[in-house]
Specification:
Number of helices: 11
Order of helices and strands: EHEHEHEHEEHHEHEHHEHEEEEHE
Number of strands: 14
Bound molecules: guanosine-5'-triphosphate, magnesium ion
Distance between the termini: 28 Å
Helix content: 25-40%
Oligomer: single chain
Radius of gyration: 20 Å
Largest sheet: 8 strands, parallel
Length: about 375
């Protein structure tokens, strides 16, 4: 049996990792061996830490996106499962990438030597930005060039998943559905919640379909794509937080992310995704902001009091990365001082993503 390759696309903060985690649990409950590949422009990934903490077999492509380092994707796939490839491979591309059918899915079937059973390509739609972008609102949060990437992601999808239906009104879901159907006809639309599992039976059934999938040809203006990506400030950092006395890990993370959120609001800099994970010996916690309007959320509580934690910060924000770095360093210091702990930034990278130059691009 060929390993099934499922790639879950969608914009930054759309719910890809949450969806992959739920799918992985489903396939493992069926007795299948599952491997996951995460991806980012640089090292220190919240997603890798979070998925590994959940006990999954995770390989990481860090330093370049799947499309621009196709060989890193395939070699990471080959290292999953310790010598025997998993039955199901779940892959999460970087949320600011598009043109993944031409640069990843098609090369996997037409260039790569290991046969894979490629599932239909689904793109998770992020309602917080999606509604505003698809309505054509001027205040969508991002520039037209970043919105171009958001739209191109939907255009190449075999099917679209409206995520977060647990917190959308029926009218909002209906409007999103109509907007997608009108602009991108022919793509089946699912309604899901990666948080509650609603709609996942339909998602799993859709992923089992085979036929003319992963073949949508589309034109991509790589100048607009590159400029849209470069409008995002990117920051990954690893920080050690310590104290003689125990501190509440969840409180620290939610305070930190709330401080960062306030700074972004004050600077009118839109968050695409701000995520922090705190890992202590006993457990871990995650806090997120997926848009300035959505606000901070402790998406996973640890309930832990500890004297030491490893904290990883990943920020993707429409702001100059130098300003983002100042904000993160200042708010880390402020959050640590607030509860009387020390913080030591072990590593920090902040930059604008470089121009995407795919290893392969198959468009015929
Ligand atoms: N309420 C609600 N929250 C969700 C749902 N899916 C994801 N989230 C939350 O949205 C945030 C982002 O989810 P992720 O799964 O990390 O999103 P992602 O697409 O992997 O993000 P990037 O890897 O940064 O691009 C987290 O706080 C999740 O808990 C959902 O269906 N409902
Ligand atoms: Mg993710």
């Amino acid at each position: 049996m060929k390993p099934v390759y499922i790639m879950v696309g969608g914009f930054l903060g759309a719910g890809k990792t949450s969806t992959i985690s739920r799918l992985a649990r489903h396939y493992m409950a069926q007795g299948k061996k599952v491997g996951i590949v995460t991806n980012d422009q640089t090292t220190d990934l919240v997603d890798t830490q979070s998925l590994r903490s959940q006990g999954f077999d995770v390989g990481e492509v860090a330093g370049s996106c799947f499309c621009c380092n196709f060989n890193a994707l395939t070699s990471t796939v080959e290292h999953l499962g310790e010598g025997q490839l998993p039955d199901v491979i779940l892959a999460e591309p970087v949320g600011s990438c598009t043109d993944l059918v031409a640069t990843v899915i098609r090369p996997l079937t037409e260039v790569y030597g290991v046969p894979l059973d490629i599932a239909p390509y689904g793109v998770i739609l992020k309602p917080s930005h999606g509604l505003r972008i698809l309505r054509g609102e001027k205040t969508s949060g991002f520039s037209p060039k970043a919105n171009y990437i958001f739209r191109k992601q939907i255009e190449e999808a075999d099917f679209v998943v409206i995520n977060r239906v647990d917190e959308l009104s029926p009218a909002e879901v209906a409007e999103l559905q109509l907007l997608i159907e009108t602009e991108y006809p022919g793509r089946p639309i699912l309604r899901c919640s990666a948080k509650t599992g609603e709609g996942f039976n339909a998602l799993i059934e859709t992923l089992e379909l085979r036929g003319q999938f992963g073949r949508r040809l589309m034109e991509v203006d790589y100048d607009i794509y590159a400029e849209g990506e470069a409008e995002l400030g990117w920051l990954n950092s690893q920080v050690v937080v310590e104290s003689k006395l125990e501190f509440d890990l969840d409180e620290f993370l939610i305070d930190l992310i709330s401080r960062l959120h306030s700074r972004l609001l004050a600077s009118n800099a839109e968050a695409a995704h701000l995520k922090v994970i705190g890992l202590s010996d006993a457990s871990y916690a995650v806090a997120n902001v997926v848009s300035n309007l959505t606000g901070p959320e402790l998406s996973l509580a640890s309930g832990t009091k500890t004297t030491a934690a490893n904290v990883v910060v990943n920020a993707r924000v429409a702001i100059d990365p130098a300003d983002l770095e100042i904000m993160v360093r200042e708010e880390l210091a402020a959050a640590a001082e607030f509860i009387g702990v020390s913080q030591n930034v072990v590593s920090l990278q902040s930059f604008r993503p470089g121009r995407p130059v795919p290893t392969h691009r198959i468009t015929v």
